[in-house]
Design goal:
The complex is a heterodimer of chains A (76) and B (138). With 76 residues, chain A is an alpha+beta fold. Helix content of chain A is 36%, strand content 24%. By secondary structure, chain B is mainly beta. Chain B has one domain: BH3618-like, CATH 2.30.290. The chains are: A alpha+beta (76), B mainly beta (138).
Chain lengths: 76, 138
């Protein structure tokens, strides 16, 4: 992992014309500003992970039977 | 809950990865408890099997952000109005798991729902609900 120290108002540049700027830095959180071309998708990591989990769950959901699940769950 | 009772919920921003799906039908039956089915009202839309989070983790508690509370209309909501569901998924090793970290929250009073990503980071995103041997052919 590349580690770069920045303070408020400073930025890093990524390829593809993406700039990530530190807008606020507090003891518990930082506020970042992202400047990127419209075709660049910017997501919080947990949203991307939830989306991936939802895609897999939707595939599984078509196969799962809630009644059978409940019977097996209660038998545990 | 009566057998196969269905209710509709509006998801203003859809769900992560399904942002265009904004209307879902919740179907529940006494014999399915604690499981329910949440599916898009759109023909061919996604279908999720979910489990009441409390049934997987006793005392389950998620921390809704202020914006999420406003969106749900949860300001005056009592505990009986809000339903916390964990989306059921196939676990990597076989079995089935539930996403307790990002619950789907439904306000039964307002008919609004959302997925509260980041609301319960202390819980696992893949909490085992059935092991590979217990699952067989669900």
């Amino acid at each position: 992992m590349l580690i770069i120290r920045r303070v408020e108002g400073e930025s890093i540049l990524l390829s593809g014309g993406v700039e990530v700027k530190v807008l606020e830095a507090g003891p518990r959180k930082v506020v970042l500003g992202v400047i990127a071309p419209p075709e660049v998708v910017v997501l919080r990591k947990e949203v991307a992970e939830a989306g991936e989990a939802n895609r897999r769950a939707a595939q599984a959901g078509g196969r799962l039977d809630a009644g059978q699940l409940a019977r097996r769950f209660r038998r545990k | 809950m009566e057998k196969n009772a269905a209710e509709r919920f509006r998801f203003r921003g859809g769900l992560p990865a399904f942002e265009e799906e904004t209307e879902f039908r919740l179907t529940a039956a006494a014999e399915w408890d604690p499981f329910v089915v949440l599916e898009s009202v759109r023909q061919g839309g996604p279908r999720f099997v979910c489990v009441r989070a409390e049934a997987v983790a006793a005392g389950y508690k998620a921390h809704l952000a202020a914006e999420a509370e406003v969106e749900l209309g949860a300001g005056g909501a009592g505990p009986e109005d809000l339903l916390y569901l964990a989306v059921v998924n196939e676990a990597p090793g076989g079995g089935l798991a539930a996403n307790l970290a990002a619950p789907i929250v439904l306000n039964k009073r307002t008919g609004v729902g959302l997925q509260a990503v980041g609301a319960a980071p202390e819980y696992p995103a893949q909490a085992t609900i059935l092991g590979p041997g217990e699952r067989e052919s669900c």
